[in-house]
Design a protein that fits this description.
The protein is of the alpha/beta class. The protein is built from nine helices and nine strands.
Amino acid sequence: MNEDFHSGFIAIVGRPNVGKSTFMNRVIGQKIAIMSDKPQTTRNKIQGVLTTEEAQYIFIDTPGIHKPKHRLGDFMVKSSIDTLNEVDIVLFMVNADEGFGRGDAFIIEKLQQISKPVLLVLNKIDQVHPDQLLPLIDTYREKHDFTEVIPISALEGNNVDQLMNVMKDLLPEGPQYYPEDQVTDHPERFIISELIREKVLHHTREEIPHSIAVVIDSIKARENKDMIDIQATVIVERKSQKGIIIGKQGSMLKQIGSEARKDIELLLGSGVFLELWVKVQKDWRNRSHYLKDYGYREDDY
């Protein structure tokens, strides 16, 4: 082990849909956080681990901070804000293509209350003209005294190495918390449910994306075969949503299952037989016992 080894926890915060999950998946080199063009995709704090010869970066990809409309939303925002006090570095990620917004002002207000290094990361620079960046940087600098400002493209990889080097220098000297081949602290069951939810988000519109949860009912390896049987249930709030997710003659559910199965096979390194059901639980996002059943701890909302 390198005697000058650095390690620590890094929170990625920002408005919904600024590219936090895309960034973390890129630096980890594996999909552990689901991605969608719909806001508020991430619901739980996803922990990703990157180990190099010189440092161990432990990323926490938080739910996008937004004005909550239900108890699940309360949980998501509280989860993000609580993280700020638990880490060594905060990455405040913004969308360079959108500019400063009210959501950013709310987050900066929270950042004023912490003493940790805060890096302003302007993501999606591949979508804007370079001349637009300096005025945008000035706007954010007027609002907060950032430790560093680093423009990147998480999708294309531009400047990501520079950001990693800046973080390495800011991380305290410390031990290797996780084995070097470990990329997340989440159990496989959780990641499998997220991969299924990602496919539902991708194929549905309007009110459905944020009305769903995915519960893994069983995971069983077949004897003497390189095959894993997985049974899962997609939870929705209304009967009409159930019909949309199932689709005509089951076509939508079949497509969701087929695409999710491919990602799950990559994750597990094994063949997968995936069975999906759809179940209605009215208003589950506002009911504590359902939130608890679906993996949201009661003390978090």
